[in-house]
């Protein structure tokens, strides 16, 4: 078997998954695209393991490890997506960027314009000018 066939197929799968990660707005479709990218890596690992005729089958062992990691990633990812969907009502990634709750501007020690509040050195200079 030529190594070029699985390598080309793997690169096409990986590019499809990368496009899905970059272009999709739904969190579940992004997770599916990550899985597609991991499967492309698994295909490459097995193809190179067969091509190198490794007696330890390190490529296949790494593939099993990657499958286990992918299963854990999907379980945790889906749990997070479901929790966010329950709280926010959407799984749209663009609407989930503001994950922090809005803060009260009165609690901020800095001005809303971003400049720091007056320091003690500034207040002592103002007091000195006021007395002269």
TrEMBL record:
List the EC numbers from the record. Answer: 7.1.1.-
Which stretches does UniProt call biased (Basic and acidic residues)? Answer: 93-103
Catalytic activity as recorded in UniProt = a quinone + NADH + 5 H(+)(in) = a quinol + NAD(+) + 4 H(+)(out)
What family does the database annotate? Belongs to the complex I subunit 4L family.
Subunit annotation = NDH-1 is composed of 14 different subunits. Subunits NuoA, H, J, K, L, M, N constitute the membrane sector of the complex.
Q: Where is this region: Disordered?
A: 93-132
What is this entry's stated membrane topology?
Answer: Multi-pass membrane protein
Q: What is this protein called?
A: NADH-quinone oxidoreductase subunit K
Q: Which InterPro entries match?
A: NADH_UbQ_OxRdtase_chain4L/K, NUOK/Mnh_C1-like
* Species of origin: Streptomyces endophyticus
